[in-house]
Design brief:
mainly alpha; single chain; about 100 residues; 4 helices
């Protein structure tokens, strides 16, 4: 149910492939859990944010390169720009976390 809903609303690029949808989820869920753990354990912040930022930046590139969303290229580009803003915010959070960690040392 969840992969179908995701594809129908946001992920409709090309032909639906449940295997790739599950692959993405199998990576995104642990990254999200690591970010949640980093809230509790400060030593996790920089590594978790670095991995999440790298993942989000690469995800952004794929969306800016392939804007062929089934509801139109404008929506595909809008999604890519939304991911770009999110990647920039994650990079900013990483920068602040790294600066805070270096001050603590």
């Amino acid at each position: 149910m969840a992969p179908e809903s995701f594809f129908d609303t946001l992920g409709a690029f090309g032909v639906r492939n449940d295997h790739y949808l599950f692959d993405f989820g199998s990576f995104a869920i642990p990254v999200g859990l690591a970010l949640l753990a980093a809230v509790k354990w400060p030593s996790w912040r920089v590594p978790a944010l670095a991995i999440a930022t790298g993942h989000w930046a690469l995800h952004t590139v794929s969306h800016l390169v392939d804007t062929n969303h089934h509801q139109g290229q404008a929506l595909g580009l809008f999604e890519g720009l939304g991911l770009l803003v999110t990647a920039a915010l994650m990079a900013l959070a990483l920068w602040f976390a790294a600066a805070e960690e270096s001050r603590a040392d």
